[in-house]
Amino acid sequence: MNDPTVSSPWRYLNSGLLPGEENMRRDVALAEDLVHGTGSPTLRVYGWKPHTISLGYNQRRHDFDEERCRHEGIDIVRRPTGGRAIFHANELTYCVVMEAGGRSIQDVYAEISNALVAGLRFLGAQVEYAIAQPDLPHLYRQQTSIPCFASSSRYEIQYEGKKLVGSAQRRYTREDGSQVVLQHGSLLLGPEHRRLHSLLNVDDDAVTETILSDLKSKTTELSTVLGRRVEFAETAAAIKHGFEQCWNIVFKEVHSL
C-alpha cells in the first residue's frame, strides 16, 4: 500500500515490556504528534509489565475487582479507543498511527488486517478474517460482553473461527478536516488472557462461568495455532515483515520516540 497523503517515512519501534499507563501515553503521543505535524506514521509493538487490564474508552472500571487486582499486582488502565476489556499478559500489542487519507474506518481495519495476516502467515499461521459484523450496541448491554475477545468484528483475525487478534480504532481530526488514525490491538501468544473472568466484580457465578466458557470456545492463541511456544521477538519481526511486504514500505527502525 503506497499512500500519497503520507510525506514522512514510516517508523518502526519495538518498545518491549512497559506499564499500562505508559503504553497508552505513548500511543496517544504518537497520534497527537502526527496531528500536529511533528510526527511520522509509525508501527509500534510492545508488551505489558506488569500484567494489565485495559478498558475501552466508555467501559466501567467498576466491572473489575480493583482490590484483587492491586493485591495480585495487576494494573487497570483505560484505552483511548473503544471496544471491551482485555487482560494483557502473554501477547504482542501493535499500534499503527497513520494518515486516514479519506479512507473509512472499515477500509483501514481491512488494510491493517491484511498486513497482520501477511505477518502471521510468514510464521506459518493460516489465519482468516471474521466476515460477520455483530450488533455491538446490543451486545455491549449484556454483562457477558465485558471481554473484548467474547466476539469478533468484521476484518478481525481468526483461526478456525476463533478470535486471535482484537483491535480498536480512534480518529483524530485536524482543523483542516483531515484525520489521523490510531489503531491498536492484541495478538494473543498464549492462553493467559482467559484469566480475565477471575478478576471481575460480578456476584453472579453464572455470568463469570459464561464469560470463561466464551473465552475458551471463541478465542485462540498463536502457540496453539502453531503447536509450539511462540516468542515475542519472533512475532514482532514477522509482523514488521508483513507490513513491509503487504504495504510496500521500508521502515526506519527507531529505538525511542
List its traits:
alpha/beta, three-stranded mixed sheet, single chain, 11 strands, BirA Bifunctional Protein, domain 2, globular, 32% helix, 257 residues, 25% strand, 7 helices, eight-stranded mixed sheet
Give a quick account of the main beta sheet: strands, pairing sense, barrel closure: 8 strands, mixed
Rg value: 18 Å
Oligomeric composition of the shown chains? single chain
Helices and strands, in order, run as EHEEHEEEHEHEEEHHHE
Overall form: globular
CATH architecture: 2-Layer Sandwich
Average pLDDT number? 90
Helical content, roughly? Answer: 25-40%
Explain what this protein looks like in three dimensions:
The protein is α/β, with parallel strands linked by helices and 257 residues long. The protein has one domain: BirA Bifunctional Protein, domain 2. It has seven helices and eleven strands. The strands form two sheets. It has an eight-stranded mixed β-sheet, sandwiched between helices. Helix 2 links the parallel strand 3 and strand 4. Helix 3 crosses helix 7. The longest helix has 19 residues. The protein is globular, with a radius of gyration of 18 Å. The two termini are 24 Å apart.
